[in-house]
């Protein structure tokens, strides 16, 4: 057994207390062996965490990681116009190589900001999976299905692709990659395809992930056409199971919150995307009070415009208070819980907590910074004051992905150069 010790840090425990301790990791198993004093002597390798906070690696519960190529490409529009006028035409030009370049850029950003796991919906998933395997993070990946505007054959092909990808890649990259069946949303995938393919996804044993209740404009047609709220419609189509998770959940009423809580279906709150596209304010406090598992996600870099989960945490706290008209709503502890355990639980991963037996997925944040001084409360700092640049080490599955701010699994300069080239060529093709 080879071991790694994270030494002399302050460790964020599952009960959200902080203790001075070392973390001893079994590298081959990718698991935490022990958290306690003076473990450096038992380790083959050490990672210094003096003056640092050791936290579970952040879990990004909803992303389109390759959309980094479209960062800044189209801003300041609402969802529907943004997708139809700008994003979908550009995505129509993306090659598998572009998606690989965009995914690597996004993964670089995730590792540099302390994220060790993410859920991703996109196309050209083999390229995303390959990049994830190289980068060393954990991911739940899926091919996003859109059937509107397609003939029956093309629509069925898209759904079949999602199922095949989910079957083929589940458990790949030494178990770091898991998958899901991913209909894009309840309005962009026809009910007949849900009826045909959801039972197959259940047979394949993979969860289902989709955008839901993101904008008021997306809710209205479902109510008009089916006489049901979107999540009632989703339940009727077998899309609300404990392993499933929905992105956004902004416009949910009391009955839908009850349905989510009863079903155990997770919600990934994406506050930055919801603010930028002016989609609305999710009732996070009410969902958490009702017992819904709530996690956090960035959504894609084209609607955010970065992939920092620490930014997302701060946004969730701020927006949650505004939505509830209550400064005590969505407090720091709730936000840190959503950033780590909440997202992990929602997307069906064991990570998100630092304790013996848990996956060795963690981030180490440098506390020696003016904006993290003084240190009354480190949970408060994580929720409100820490930033991506404070992350000094990132570890996933027992492997050091970034040491002292140097990413070890990806060549940063090469990744940036390939992404720049791909983005410029893409913009040229779309014009
Ligand atoms: C078919 S792959 C996924 C698909 O989703 C698009 N997308 C990005 N952000 C959002 C969002 O906030 N709501 C709905 N759809 C979104 C992305 O551009 C891909 O086309
Ligand atoms: Zn999305």
From TrEMBL:
Transmembrane segments: none annotated. GO terms for molecular function: 5'-methylthioadenosine deaminase activity; metal ion binding; S-adenosylhomocysteine deaminase activity. Its cofactor is Zn(2+). Zn(2+) binds at residues 62, 64, 211, 299. Substrate binds at residues 91, 184, 214, 299. Keywords: Hydrolase, Metal-binding, Zinc. Pfam families: Amidohydro_1. This is 5-methylthioadenosine/S-adenosylhomocysteine deaminase. It comes from Natrinema salsiterrestre.
